[in-house]
Amino acid sequence: MSQKNAFPWEKPSKFSRPGAGWAEVGASLTRVAAEVDGRHHGSPLPAGDPATVLAAVADALGPEQIPAAGIGEDAALGHLADLLARYGIDLTHKQTAAHLQPPALTVSVIADALASSGNASLDTYDSGPATLGIEQWTIRALARLAGFTEAAGGVFGPGGSYSNLLALLVARDYGAAQRGIDVRHNGVSALPRPVVFCSRIAHFSVHRACAALGLGEAAAIPVPVDSDHRMIPEALEELLEQYGADHTPIAVVATAGTTDFGSIDPLPRIAEIAARHHVWMHVDAAYGFGSLFSDKLAGLLTGIERADSITLDLHKVGWQPAAASVLLLSDQQRFASLNRSVAYLNPDDDVEAGYGGLLGQTLQTTRRPDVFKVAATFLAYGREGLGEMLDACHELAQYAERRIATELQLDLVAPVTLTTVLFRYRCEDLDLDQVNGEVRRRLINSGKALIGRTQVRIHGEGEPRTCLKLTLLNPEATEQDIDALFDDILRIALEVESEGLEHSVDEMVKTHE
Fold it and tell me: Of 244, 278, 335, 447, which has the fewest beta carbons less than 10 angstroms from its beta carbon?
């Protein structure tokens, strides 16, 4: 038999093959990178207003239809890479600080490409045994980091919002089963007035999950927060007692790392209250879980080991390309309501023989191995390396906090907990909400800096006001970069203020004439 016939996979192929195929992926990426080198806009975002930028992308792509004939692989990749270079976001830029959207570690990007090249799925053993084993190992490692026992389990998912949805679904089904109700078969109408308790500033995904699960957004009962933006345990206790008689408490959702403040609810107290009332405790630690990588910050999450479920998202503090979210359960058996036996995927006799997978722990069937890049990062850097990165970001946030204190026209809205800095520009005789919103838009349009915005009650009082926000997740940024960022913010703010004052004066003159 000839070499050609014996090894038909050595023929040229359109598809990504193990070994040589991976080299082709790398070579193509190298070619594309060389072609667009020097074309990048060199800023966090391209300069210009959104309509202009989006129109330029659309024009470059041409008519909105799939072309009858292709232009070839190299040309297609080069064209799209050019669009990314000219009009994309640069999360590695030192003045990109808007969202919980970090620069991606190079090792994780390479690993993600390797995972894509194999196109494995995690629903069954025969859809990708290596990646199945890697996910099981990584889940056990994360569960151990959280302080869970050997009974714990978990599953990766497409984002923190999905993991919160899955957690509340499992909590709903488990709580119903404890009352002798099969809610998945009979529907939520069998549950008497189900409710979920979360802080007033919990992530909106909790409310969306309640809606998706048939509970309704009104089922999310807001618990007051204190001056540090943390759930008040006494208020939670009162609400549980108030709703306990004629409602069905599904879960208490504590937050470890609020989006706007980075604040962390008092987990030990909440755990005590949830246990006393026999209510599922879920911790949304999509942002804050990464604190466990740091010796300095890990104490913030004391008590998380008492949760029934935890959401974490390594796309945030973990520096992973999306998606890299995880749901951990303290008891893996509580995934039971999701289990399905499907003849063409996981028949019972195959599962008993060890050919099962993770189909019964998620709402997804086909599921790409997002774990691959996470495992590569853990092996490359270890807990200490990731902890050092988080500590660097935390120190930058503290430096930004000190810089704000030196500027008379800036007000710190909340003290720094993790890597988020919330502040507000102030001036006289102008609508400060409009001024702060315009400052951010002009920064974006200039292409010089990208910062965030939100609305919060200043010092916990009054109507929500527009504030500016830095989310600092680039451990390679320096104090000099922070100073340059604030210099740009203040320069733009003074321009806005000056134009606003001139406009006000003109209006006053016209009125008096």
Answer: 278
